[in-house]
Amino acid sequence: MSGSVNKEQLIKHLQGGEAFMALEDLIDKISFEKLGEKPQNLPYSFYELFYHIVFAQKDILEYSISENYKSSEWPDDYWPKESTPDTEEDWKKLKKDYFEDRERFKNFILDTDIDLNLPVKNSDNHSLLREIMLVIEHTAYHTGQMLIILRLLGLYK
């Protein structure tokens, strides 16, 4: 899986928009005031889902490439304590963090010296490709949930 065509395809899926909506196509369709609303019978707000995506992506990236990786506590660390960010600046920072980490992942994938079939830095049982696919699938799954929340809040048709 070290070929550039395969890596480019992974990048397309990492960015979304192939078989599912890209995060950048929906992330700004909700006002700050509505970020914490939980539609009836749903356990999460739009913010909580996005926070979870951001945290998981960063955690998987660090697990894959960092020599200094420290495990996070499941599920407590992966979900925010509150259903909404404290400030609009916190919300902007979370979005910025997501896109910066995704860019780091893209650059890592495209590095010609990286063989995606090799194990990650922190486990001989998981390949780099597995972790990349995990981020793609995880993000797609929760992006779909975020879209449903937008629809239930009347913010997307």
UniProtKB/TrEMBL annotation:
Q: Where is the DinB-like domain?
A: 21-146
Gene3D superfamilies per UniProt = dinb family like domain
**InterPro entries according to UniProt:** DinB-like, DinB/YfiT-like
Highest taxon of the source? Answer: Bacteria
What protein does this entry describe? Answer: Uncharacterized damage-inducible protein DinB (Forms a four-helix bundle)
Name its species: Salegentibacter agarivorans
